[in-house]
Design brief:
By secondary structure, the protein is of the alpha/beta class. It contains 15 helices and 19 strands. Helix 6 (180-194) packs antiparallel against helix 9 (304-317) and helix 14 crosses helix 15.
Length: 490
């Protein structure tokens, strides 16, 4: 026996499916779980007392140094599925990963345990296909549990407010030109209020212009009332803002109007919202996720129509779970998915594209200007602001582009839609810095409405378009820190 093999017992070679290197707390716990599945397991550890304890527990345990480069000679690897380096010693795990990577076929997976991110990177470089970092796993588990506690606490407060206001009439106000997330969230809130004998109406201003949004409302038969003027709010005992949080900011509610309920997932900027009950969670991807949690907590039956609406709301606001998506959004979608009408969802998602949308997309492509990885496009006069985010999404797919801004003029305002995939940029903050309080959003998706102001005095349409373009481009590039002289062509 060579010196390098003296610390490995001479025993009949075991033929494990799972080889665990390190029989400490984590290795032992993993082995116990694997044994429930009746898998063949072998554990190797350098501590003689630990090995004896493992054997007393009925495990096939060997005494050996997991850093030994000839350790594999003690194992019959014909049935091996996975090698797991799970000791508490980072350097030992890294060495073990490197040793086994050199001798096992690619079909055998090697996983390991690391104490921090830097050690994780070392182990990945050594050949580990997956590295667990226990402190991160523990902190995530605790955070998720704390989030559950917070959710229950907030849900209880909402139920208390509704219980104290039984029998009232409630106006649920959406942001102007509402999207599926806002509409489905308001729809869910109307179902919740029924449990407390509260009559609720969904109110909106502007237009439901996007072809998918129109199909969404029509196919699901969601009742909504178009706001005819500020006097409509006098008909209700209280108001709720859903998917928006500031009266008069992107909604028709007077700035001094008292608000009963605010439920939103957007950051609110410099103006702090105020209401009897507020739930503003910027750490979720959709307001529909928040409302889904309420429905679950309050044990309110979810109809097929409501489930379909909420699922579509989450999917659209997270861009099919590719934007600002959290574990809460996935959990809500998982709950809603089996309850939804998937044939109806398909009909909502695949309506024909309108001629105006095609026209605006064409203008956006034709008028694009790029400044490094930033693309801006002025599409001129528009009739439907919902065409802007569609154009922005399309342009973001262009090679070499990481940030897109598309803007146009409608009525007395400039509307801006932006998309971003540069992880160094928080697009919502940039938009707010560039265009003020009527702008904002998430790191990857944001928008703004800018009053034309002094520009509206321009009588010539082309001059107006030029002034608007110069102002929007300059303000955005200054806010994001890009030199205007960096313009290039794609």
């Amino acid at each position: 026996m060579s010196p390098s093999q003296k610390n490995v017992e001479s025993v009949k070679k075991p033929r494990p499916e799972f080889l665990i290197l390190g029989g400490g707390i984590i290795g032992f716990a993993v082995a116990k779980e694997l044994r429930k599945t009746e898998k063949e397991i072998t554990i190797i550890d350098v501590d003689k007392t630990r090995v004896e304890t493992l054997r007393q527990e009925g495990f096939n345990a060997l005494l050996g140094d997991i850093t030994n480069p000839e350790l594999y000679n003690t194992i019959d690897m014909r049935n091996l599925i996975c090698v797991a380096a799970l000791s508490s010693n980072d350097d030992a795990n890294t060495k073990a990963v490197s040793n086994f990577k050199a001798v096992v076929p690619d079909s055998v997976k090697i996983i390991s345990r690391a104490s921090d991110i830097l050690k994780k990177e070392e182990m990945m470089g050594a050949g580990s296909s997956y590295v667990f970092v226990p402190p991160l796993i523990v902190s995530k588990t605790i955070t998720e549990y704390l989030d559950l506690i917070e959710t229950k606490h907030i849900g209880n407060r909402l139920a208390q407010w509704l219980d104290e206001h039984r029998g009232i009439t409630l106006g649920i106000v959406l942001h102007d030109n509402p999207d599926p997330d806002a509409i489905s969230s308001a729809y869910a809130l109307t179902e919740i209020t029924k449990k407390f004998d509260i009559k609720a109406d969904i109110l909106y201003d502007g237009k439901v212009g996007h072809h998918e949004n129109k199909a969404f409302i029509n196919l699901l038969a969601i009742p909504m009332i178009k706001i005819s003027g500020p006097e409509v709010f006098d008909q209700y005992d209280s108001l709720a803002l859903v998917d928006n949080s500031i009266p008069s900011v992107n909604n028709s509610v007077p700035a001094d109007q008292p608000i009963g309920i605010i439920i939103d997932h957007h950051s609110y900027g410099d103006i702090e919202p105020s209401a009897d009950f507020m739930d503003i969670r910027t750490n979720v991807g959709a307001s529909a996720t928040i409302l889904t949690k309420y429905l679950q907590q309050m044990d309110i039956p979810v109809s097929k129509e409501l489930a379909t609406a909420l699922l579509f709301g989450i999917r659209t606001d997270t861009n099919d779970f590719r934007r600002n998506t959290t574990s809460a959004d996935f959990a809500a979608a998982s709950f809603l998915h089996p309850l939804s009408d998937h044939d109806l969802l398909t009909q909502v998602e695949t309506p024909s594209m309108s001629v105006e949308t095609l026209d605006i997309l064409s203008e956006a492509i034709r008028n694009r200007e790029t400044y490094g990885a930033v693309l801006l496009s002025n599409v001129g006069t528009i009739r439907n602001r919902d065409t802007l985010p569609q154009a922005a999404d399309y342009l973001l797919a262009m090679e070499g582009v990481s940030t897109v801004v598309v803007f146009g003029i409608m009525d007395d305002s400039i509307y801006v839609s932006a998309r971003n995939e540069d992880i160094r940029v928080h697009l919502g903050d940039v938009m707010r810095e560039a265009f003020g309080e009527n702008a904002g959003g998430h790191p990857t998706a944001a928008g703004a409405r800018i009053p034309l102001g002094v520009f509206s005095s321009a009588k010539d349409k082309q001059i107006l378009q030029k002034l608007v373009e110069e102002s929007v481009v300059k303000r955005f590039l200054n806010a994001i820190g890009v030199d205007e002289d960096s313009e290039n062509d794609l």
